Amino acid sequence: MNNLILNNEILNNVITKIEFQKKNKRRVNIFMDDEYAFACDAELVYIHNITKGRVMDKESLENIVNEDNYIKGKTCALHFLERSHKSTKQVVDKLAMKEYDEKTIDRVIRFLNDYDFIDDKKFVDMFINEKINSAGKNKIKFDLLKKLIPKELVQEGLSTITNEQQLEVALKLGQKKNDTLSKSERDVNKIHKKLSDYLLRSGYDYDIIKQVLNEINKNNIDEESFEDVPTVDTSEQDFQNMYELASKRYNILIKSETNRAKLYKKLGDYLLRRGFKWENIKKALKELINSVENGYDEDINYESRW
Fold first, then answer.
1. Which of 64, 66, 67, 174 could link 212 by a cystine bridge, Cβ 3.0 to 4.6 Å?
2. What's the confidence (pLDDT) of residue 247?
3. In this structure, what DSSP letter does residue 228 have?
4. Are 274 and 216 in contact (CB under 8 A)?
5. Could you give the CA distance from residue 53 to residue 70 in angstroms, rounded to a whole number?
6. Which DSSP state fits 135?
7. Number of helical H runs and strand E runs in the chain
8. Residue 30 above 80 pLDDT?
9. N- to C-terminal Cα distance for the chain?
10. What are the Cα distances from residue 262, in Å, to 157, 230, 257, 259, 289?
């Protein structure tokens, strides 16, 4: 910042010239005894009755310095707060970085508090309300501490978030992410890992993540938990499990999908995502199709359809 430049030898000299700065018409340069003495806000010329021919003592000059620093510090802080809400500590650090002195910073902060430009408790409440639908408590806590909010205020705010709130949001985020991952990844274990990592980065703890994964996989396999999904399908029991799973899924899909080719494709993709082998899927679908569609051609080329 541009502090007032004072010549220590100028203690009782006469003001000989007052001129507006060329690049900033809100500030003026003051000359004493025909030499540049200091610059200040133009408003202070009127507040302190700074006129040509006036004799200025040291105390008067210091008052001008303090008042000018305060006006500039207040303006700096308000501009800083225009972009987004900030914590008290963020504003203090911003002013300190601009090299304002401690007295000026304290005065600016009092002004901001008096007129509710800053309020750390309100800031925490507002931040949580804004982020609760996209992040878990851990990420919200990290972001608040990064903004230099006092830890006790952060903890107080986080205590208002219930597990039910977190689980509801995490389930929505998890289901959306799962749908996206399933379009390009068919290994259910890899989907499980990527989904876990995503929710962890979003700020949810392991208990919440476990509940979300169980719920998503329960929906995917019609009330069967994630741990019950077969990953090895070489045995007769595995094949029977896959056939029953395909039958359940078929009964769900047939309610909304009437196009036979699309129906079979969705069934095949669904079973591939569950971790079954392609050869066994074709065999299961042939048996399923023959049992539910009279006269279906067993020699249909599945791979050409899909």
1. 174
2. 83
3. G
4. no
5. 26
6. -
7. 14, 4
8. yes
9. 68
10. 49, 25, 7, 5, 14
CA-to-CA distance for 266 and 272, rounded, in angstroms? 10
Q: What is the Cα–Cα distance from 264 to 250, expressed in whole angstroms? A: 9
Planar angle of CA 18, 24, 29, nearest 5 degrees: 20
Find the mean pLDDT for residues 251-279: 78
How many whole angstroms separate alpha carbon 212 and alpha carbon 189? 15
Q: Provide CB contacts within 8 A for 267, sequence distance 6+.
A: 246, 249, 250, 253, 285, 288
Backbone torsions φ then ψ of 16, nearest 5 degrees: -110, -15
Topology given in CATH for the domain delimited by 163-228: Arc Repressor Mutant, subunit A (1.10.10)
* Residue 232 pLDDT class (50, 70, 90 cuts): very low
Task: Write out the H or E segment, with its range, that includes residue 110.
Answer: helix 102-114
Please give the Cα distance from 285 to 3 (Å, whole number): 81
DSSP state of 272: H
| Cα dist from 129 to 62, 126, 161, 217, whole Å | 46, 5, 10, 29
3-state secondary structure 209-276: HHHHHHHHHHHHCCCCCHHHCCCCCCCHHHHHHHHHHHHHHHHHHCCCCCCHHHHHHHHHHHHHHCCC
For residue 48, the model assigns a pLDDT of 83
C-alpha to C-alpha distance for 196 and 204, rounded to whole angstroms: 9
Instruction: From residue 122, give the alpha-carbon distance in Å to each of 77, 81, 162.
Output: 18, 14, 19
C-alpha pair distances (Å), 226 with each of 6, 166, 223, 231? 75, 21, 10, 11
> Do residues 56 and 32 lie in contact, with contact meaning Cβ atoms separated by under 8 Å?
yes
DSSP 41: E
